[in-house]
Protein: HTH_Tnp_Tc3_2 domain-containing protein
Organism: Trichonephila clavipes
Amino acid sequence: MPGKHARRHFSQLSEFERSLIIGVKTAGWSTRRVAGQVDRSECAVRNCWEQCPREGTHARKTASGAIRKSTRREDRMIVRQALVDPTVTRSTIREDVGVSIVPQIISRHLAEANLKSKRSFRALHLTPEHRQLRLQW
C-alpha cells in the first residue's frame, strides 16, 4: 500500500503545527492520535513535544551558518544586472550594485535564478586548413 503512509516526512513543522501539537498533547491526546491529526510522523510529534519543556518554547531554533552580506534587494539587483546584460562580469556586477561580497556569491545568486554565465563571442578559431584556403583565396 504505497499511498497509505504518504506523509510529508522531510518538511519542517510550521509554527501552527507546532502549537497545535503542544495544545492537543497538553489536552491529553496520544502521540499516535496527534500524528494522525496533523498528518506527521509519530517521531516528529514526539520530538516536538519533548522539545517544549527542554527549551521552554515550541519555536524552532535559528539556523546556523554564515550571515548574509547582501540584502534581498541587492540580490534582486544582481539578478537584474545579469538579465539586462548577459555578458557582464561578476566584478562589474559587484561594482554596480555596490555590495562587498566575493564573486562566488554572485555566481550562486545567479545560479539560484537559473541564469548561466555567458561570454561574448569573439571569432571562430581557424583550423590550419582554413588558414591555407583563406591565403589561397
Q: What stands out?
A: The longest helix spans residues 42-55. Helices lie at 15-26, 31-38, 42-55, 72-84, 90-97, 103-112, 128-136. The mean pLDDT is 80. Residues 94 and 100 are 7 Å apart (CA to CA).
